[in-house]
Design a protein that fits this description.
By secondary structure, the chain is α+β, with helices and mostly antiparallel strands. Helix content is 23%, strand content 36%. The strands form three sheets. Strands 7-8-9-11-12-15-16-17 form an eight-stranded antiparallel β-barrel. It has a six-stranded antiparallel beta sheet with strand order 1-2-3-4-5-6, sandwiched between helices.
């Protein structure tokens, strides 16, 4: 007979390989369908710590200190502790990544697991970021043009998130330089410099992939001043809350549709402007 105090936490024994397979199954929607998985991978409540929210059963860590662009990333974790055994599984949906740490013995503690996870995340994610940027530039970066409509656009990678967008011209009109003409219809000032970045949405059908652009209005110093003037952090960062705000012909100017072949972009459609640009070799 097994005594109660010898039963593992939750009545379950496992190993690193099986827990990794379990976490990967969650992220790849092999345990639940995509809709149910998305419902499950959500916070249920916040806490007094800005770096921690709770789900069911997730302990959701939030940090903007890992990547060069200080992007906010959520880490869905579940830790377990029983005597001298301390363990954690960590799912990072943004990267499709699963990390698991199992420890035991006299040197094991909850702090040891936390510090080990910190070392793994802060070492692994920047390396993945660099590799991803190299791959993204190869698959989607560069110049796209259409000589018949005198339209062009260029995407490049830097230390910021997504792509930097430059040389955006449609039918001979510089879209970034004339963004103020669109901005005059919104609450944004019309005399500030504009920077544009492009982000994937993970929405696709067939060989088409949807991306979205975001317009940063103001210099980094002006944005920092705007952040400092608000009582909540990064108050000038509107990102996804600003989608579809500016339209042309009732279509959002921030929508970009790539047509791909074997994972590489071949052309780009701008629905709002009704133009298709071919990717230059």
């Amino acid at each position: 007979m097994v005594k109660a105090n010898q039963i593992s936490g939750g009545g379950m024994y496992s190993n690193t390989k099986d827990i990794l397979a379990f976490g990967t199954g969650i992220l790849q929607n092999r345990l639940l369908d995509p809709v149910m998985t998305r419902k499950w991978m959500k916070p249920v409540t916040s806490t007094s710590s800005p770096g921690l929210m709770l789900g069911g059963p997730w302990e959701i860590l939030r940090s903007d200190t890992v990547t060069k662009d200080q992007r906010l990333i959520e880490y869905y974790t579940k830790s377990g502790n029983l005597g001298s055994y301390n363990n954690i599984i960590c799912l990072i949906p943004d990267y499709g990544l699963v990390i698991t740490i199992l420890s035991g013995g006299g040197e094991s503690s909850a702090d040891t697991v936390d510090f080990t996870l910190t070392d793994v995340v802060t070492t692994l994610l920047p390396a993945i970021e660099d590799a991803s940027k190299t791959q993204a530039e190869s698959d989607f970066g560069g110049a796209y043009t259409d000589s018949t409509t005198n339209s062009s656009i260029t995407f490049s990678v830097d230390d910021g998130p997504g792509f930097s967008v430059t040389n955006w011209t449609v039918r001979g009109v510089d879209i970034i330089e004339n963004y103020s003409a669109f901005g005059a219809l919104s609450s944004s000032p019309t005399d500030l410099p504009v920077r544009v970045r492009l982000y994937p949405t993970n929405l696709s059908t067939g060989c088409e992939m949807a991306w979205r652009a975001y317009f940063d209005v103001g210099t980094p110093a002006q944005l920092a001043e705007g952040d400092a003037g608000r009582f909540w952090p990064k108050g000038t960062c509107h990102t996804w809350a600003s989608m579809d705000r500016l339209v042309y012909g009732f279509k959002s100017i921030d929508e970009f549709i790539f047509t791909t072949s074997k994972g590489e972009a071949k052309s780009l459609s701008l629905p709002a402007f009704d133009v298709r640009l071919k990717r230059e070799a």
